[in-house]
Amino acid sequence: MGSEGMTQLAAERARPGPARVPAMAVLQYHLVGYRRTWRGGVLSSFLLPALTVLGFGVGVGAFVDQGVDGVSYLEWIVGGLLASTALQVAIAESTWPVYSSLQWTKIYFAQYAAPLRVADILAGQLAFVLFRVLTSAAAFLLVTGVLGALRSPWAVLALPVAALLGLAVAAPTFAYAATASSDSWLALLFRFAVIPMTLFAGVFFPVESLPVGLRWLAYATPLWHAVDLSRAATLGTAPVWSVTGHLLYLAAWAVGGWLLAHRALRRRLVV
């Protein structure tokens, strides 16, 4: 590291820490903004899960007469759809909002001048993503419970799984959005990562039915690990793989993503 980098690092470390300007201030900023817009998403938060469950679980399930693994297709698919919902919410909240705060509105630059540390800005943003993931997952769980698609009270454990998945994908997505040169790169992320992951990570059919090569690609995605855990929770059965292994893998994605996101944001803010 050169002398300029050392000077920048020393300057950042000398900035006021959480005792004066905590990351909660960033979370509060996002919550205040969300308080003015949440009504627009209430209908979709409940209607979309209901339509999704009915469309896939009941509609497609009518053609799956034997069910999957001894349970109806409707009950089998719920865990995967819940994890998929958490994934999409986490990535949606970590792409254009992050890119906008750096390129268009310059919110992060204003927050850094407040002064806030890079870690505070990142932690506050991810805390808001976690809030959005949990509220969306809870709404999905409530709707599926009303529709009678939950087989076990252990289904509530799908909420912390959704939260961990949210962090596992939001942190690296934050890093990606912070380094994107154009918002077109964000659309490519959905087209070539989110959609294929949703289709082939065990949400709609067992991964074991895929060819071996594609199967291992599915295993490498964070979504499949969350799907396996969520499905086990909603069905009240043991997951296909180790619970500890799943949690450690998702945690590794979250920690690695945090490091990448912190580095990317620091490069943009620390001049």
UniProtKB/TrEMBL annotation:
Topology in the lipid bilayer is annotated as: Multi-pass membrane protein
Listed A to Z, the keywords are: Antibiotic resistance, Cell membrane, Membrane, Transmembrane, Transmembrane helix, Transport
Tell me which InterPro entries the record gives.
Answer: ABC2_TM, ABC2_TM_bact-type, ABC_2_transport, Nod_factor_ABC_transporter
**Residue runs in coiled coils:** none
GO biological process entries: response to antibiotic
Output the superkingdom of the source species: Bacteria
Give the stretches traversing the membrane: 42-64, 76-99, 126-148, 154-178, 185-207, 240-261
Q: Which GO terms describe its cellular component?
A: ATP-binding cassette (ABC) transporter complex
Ranges for the ABC transmembrane type-2 domain? Answer: 40-268
Cell location: Cell membrane; Membrane
Key word Transmembrane present: yes
Listed GO molecular functions?
ABC-type transporter activity
Reply yes or no: does the keyword Transmembrane helix apply: yes
Q: Which family does it belong to?
A: Belongs to the ABC-2 integral membrane protein family.
Q: What is this protein called?
A: Transport permease protein
Species assigned in the record: Salinispora tropica (strain ATCC BAA-916 / DSM 44818 / JCM 13857 / NBRC 105044 / CNB-440)
Q: What is the lineage of its organism?
A: Bacteria, Bacillati, Actinomycetota, Actinomycetes, Micromonosporales
